[in-house]
Amino acid sequence: QVQLVESGGGLVQPGGSLRLSCAASGRTSSTYNMGWFRQAPGKEREFVAAMDWSIGNVYYADSVKGRFTGSRDNAKNTLYLQMNSLTPEDTAVYYCAVALLSIPTAVGRVHYWGQGTQVTVSS
After folding, report:
1. Closest C-alpha among 90, 68, 91 to residue 81
2. Do the Cβ atoms of 15 and 123 come closer than 8 Å?
3. What is the per-residue pLDDT across 48-73, written as a single tens digit (0 to 9) for each?
4. Which of 34, 39, 40, 65 qualifies as a cystine partner to 60, CB 3.0-4.6 A?
């Protein structure tokens, strides 16, 4: 079992920035990969970004490319998502995700979910 704890959400004005964190604990291993999804009210959960933990490559959804940056702290088993130039369309609950033996770029690949953290972009 893997436990995921997210933090860093909040209210920010359009054009602002936030950094999300996701700390993994439990039966973590080198065969898991971490990522971020988001779900806005009335919409399906969608892929945001994911990292190939073995080599550090990060994959992004087109809607966030150039604005969001994924990074990690291996020693802390923590994934970060730096979100810049935020718009109201980025408002959603953001979920950390873990996939085993694949990159979590789709909901169907995810084995573990965090509890979610709310990001609201509004003036």
Report:
1. 68
2. no
3. 999 998 888 999 999 999 999 999 99
4. 65
